Amino acid sequence: MEQPNIKSLIDRYLEGNTSLDEEAILRKFFTQSSNIPKEFTEFKPFFTFYRNAQNEKFIGTKKNSSINLIKTFLGVAALLAVIFTLQTKQLNDVGQLSNEELAITYQEFQIQMQRVSSHLNRGAQNLAYLDYWNTTTQKIITP
Hints:
By secondary structure, this protein is mainly α. The chain is built from five helices and no strands. It folds into two domains: 3-55, no CATH class; 65-141, no CATH class. Helix 1 (3-15) packs across helix 2 and helix 2 crosses helix 3 (44-55). The model has no long low-confidence stretch (mean pLDDT 79).
């Protein structure tokens, strides 16, 4: 295509006055021409962007919810182990407790562990629901 015609099409493109056919001509010129004049090289990215973008693929990262769930449970277990160790050490520092005090402490510990367990179970149910929701939306989004 002639340079004066391309120059006028570029000027009209930058002003926003080109038709779709004229833009197609410009895209064709910039994508198929091997020797583009130096004065037009700065405009090449405008017209080759879509062709390059069509070749790009999005590689999404799929988070594995079961691994995250296991990590959460391991973290909670480690926290409970630390708490239990500190509590045991504190009890040993205070002195010997009677069997009745030990039984009461053990019952309180069991109650607290049941509360923690119920919270963890509710959290696991919510994670399962979120995983189901994520799977469903991925099916809708990706054809």
